[in-house]
Write a structure and sequence with these properties.
Elements: E1 9-12, E2 17-22, E3 34-41, E4 50-51, E5 56-58, H1 60-64, E6 69-71, E7 76-79, E8 87-90, E9 94-96, E10 100-105, H2 111-120, H3 122-127, H4 139-143, E11 146-149, H5 152-193, E12 202-203, E13 210-211, E14 215-218, H6 219-222, E15 223-226, E16 240-246, E17 262-267, H7 268-274, E18 281-284, E19 286-287, E20 295-297, E21 306-307, E22 311-316, H8 322-330, H9 332-341, E23 343-344, E24 349-350, H10 353-357, E25 360-363, H11 366-406, H12 413-421
Parallel strand pairs: 3-9, 4-8, 16-21
Antiparallel strand pairs: 1-11, 2-10, 3-5, 6-9, 7-8, 7-10, 12-13, 14-25, 15-22, 16-17, 18-20, 18-22, 19-24, 23-24
Length: 422
Amino acid sequence: MKKIPEGWESTTLGHQIENMLGGGTPDRSNPDYWDGEIPWATVKDLTSPILAGTSEHITCEGLQNSSSKLIPSGTIIMATRMAVGKAVRFVCDVAINQDLKAVFPKKVLAIEFLHQWFRWNESNFASLGSGSTVAGIRQEVIKMFPILLPPLPEQEKIADILGGVDAAINATRRVIEQTRILKRSLMQQLLTRGIPGRHKRFKPSPLGEIPEEWEVVKLREIAVIQTGIAKNGKIKNGHSIKVPYLRVANVQDGYVDLSEMKDIEISEDKLKRYLLKRRDVLFNEGGDADKLGRGCVWEGQIDPCVHQNHVFVVRCGKQLNPYFLACQAGSQRGKQFFFHSSKQTTNLASINSSQLKEFPVFLPDINEQKSIIRALDGTDIRINNEIKTIEILQSVKFALMQALLSGDTRIPAKALKRKEAV
């Protein structure tokens, strides 16, 4: 049994909180209860540890005529269904639904420390969730969860240290977002006006004014579109092999995510038909609207590798640089084309290969295409470097949580005295 750090208390969460409040949902059929001025939170709003608002709002009448509760800003709010264990704090007063609980600690427990402790234990709470369809956790189970509690000054110092890393992560995320805004602006300029100073004369086109030397062509005229293999397709004759395959989840906006690859069984004689080649451009058939038409370039990271039928492959001819095509697909114009061309249901959207073939492509000469890609590469390099910085900071944060919240590493007494003096 692990020794309790000197001066710390081994207790349960229930002994250190004053109250836990649940919420509810106003009547959806009553329009007087909705589109009001009060932010109303559900699990889907819990996107980051600190939140500024919610996707839906209710009226004072809706709050009064439901079991929803108005929770003061800064309160820890925990998901008890679906995203079990996720804990956030809003910077505004917020009403909550029945899948959330607001946690009110006693004065001996610093709220910033408790929030960091919840985040450290998120996976542990998630493992206690139960339910045949949607996982949930009972309030009694939450209250019985063990917690090691340092003295209040040490809690506050631990929260300060961990919060400092959070601040660095958030600042880096802001840099990434600003760089992405810069890239979108730069893309708009380069993909419609070309390299600055290169073109003197412009002409009208179906897509707006473009340099006189450019053309607008259909994708089918300068590339080959390849459909993928059906996941449950039957193997009729010959030998079969298992190979990795790309799914919609692997094709992200501008990059390929290979963190979770799956295998598919395919007959050897069909392998060549569905095989990916380096510099293929990948397009998603559909899914959520933000996944529609995503384009990114395959670099041959895995060989052999095939693609599922929900991922199209575009193989560019000599006139079209694949990175330039991926850039156009990811631009605002590209996203709008796929969205308006798609077949849409309540939550999903999809395109077929015929619609993809009709994608209109700006076509400068191949050298200018390469120059445009190089001009945009600088922003991508900056973004990728900042993403790596976040990954390093998150590793540092995890190590600090392990050390400080377990009591394995103690805050020096001198540091605590300095804080008390302030």
